[in-house]
Amino acid sequence: MAGRAAPPPRSLAQLARTVVACERCPRLRAWCAKVAREKKREFRDWDYWGRPVPGCGDPAARLFVVGLAPAAHGGNRTGRVFTGDSSGDWLYAALFRHGFASQPASLSRDDGLELLDCYVAAAARCAPPENRPTPREFANCGPYLATELGLLARVRVIVALGQLAHDALLRALGWRGGRGAPSRPRFAHGAEALLPGGIVLVDSYHPSRQNTNTGRLTGEMWDAVWARARQLVEGGTRR
Q1: Which residues of the chain have pLDDT under 50?
Q2: What is the pTM of this model?
């Protein structure tokens, strides 16, 4: 007879331990281990994390930020989401400017950074080859995202970084369309949507080099997202 499924984590600390020990996606686990073993010349002196990367931040956060996945030589190296790569440079500098972080850079797990009224996570918890998890890999991580949101009871605003994060978030929330149901929010930079429970979803292009180096995402566009997030967190009205 099959054993009972493990009960969902009851705290963010327990969830983090569950995420770090996860082995649901053999392809991703093999890739992360390979990257951690071979390393990048620039980081040859680092002891790579090489495991799934949990979310981090303030347990009383009103702002929740969800990205795509750890970078091979970013979160997969440092063990902190959006840490050690150019996307993280953009993210934490903006969070600092708008009062959601204690410092403008996130370099390692022990660099003293504190997130203030903010929690940051990713739709997929392992670094994927070519930055592209499969639908099944996203689905395997979906319960972690759903559990996180359930434990973060004060969240008022969610910022989704990129369409893949937007879609994964809606799946984790169990968004269902159909007759009489609200239409499914569509992704667009700067778009806002009201989610169940009165949470406001704000979309942004992901701060990847592909977007920032080409001008698809400019500093002005990026800063406007976080100014709006701050306004909404403090009780501003939805557009």
Answers
A1: 1-2
A2: 0.93
Q: Which residues share a beta bridge with 159?
A: 65, 202
Q: Which of 41, 113, 59 is nearest to 83 (CA)?
A: 113
Domain residue limits at 57: 12-177+184-233
Strand ranges for 27-117 from DSSP E: 56-57, 63-67
234 HSE (CA, 13 A, CB side):
9
Q: Reading across the β-sheet that carries 192-194, which strands appear in turn?
A: 56-57, 118-122, 63-67, 157-161, 200-204, 192-194
Cα separation, 12 vs 17, in Å, equals: 9
Q: What is the pLDDT of residue 179?
A: 54
Enumerate the β-bridge partners of residue 161.
Answer: 204
Asked whether residue 56 is assigned to any structural domain, the reply reads: yes
DSSP 236: P
Q: What is the CATH number of the domain that holds 82?
A: 3.40.470.10
User: 5 in a domain, yes or no?
Assistant: no
Q: Is residue 42 part of a domain?
A: yes
Q: What gap in Å lies between CA 121 and CA 80, rounded to an integer?
A: 9
Provide the domain count of the chain: 1
Q: Two tokens at 54?
A: 């949990």
Dihedral sign computed on CA atoms, order 179, 172, 115, 98:
negative
In one-letter notation, the amino acid at residue 66 is: V
| Rounded Cα distance, 226 and 91, in Å | 10
Please give the sequence-ordered ranges of beta strands (E in DSSP) within the chain, or none if there are none: 56-57, 63-67, 118-122, 157-161, 192-194, 200-204
pLDDT at res. 239: 66
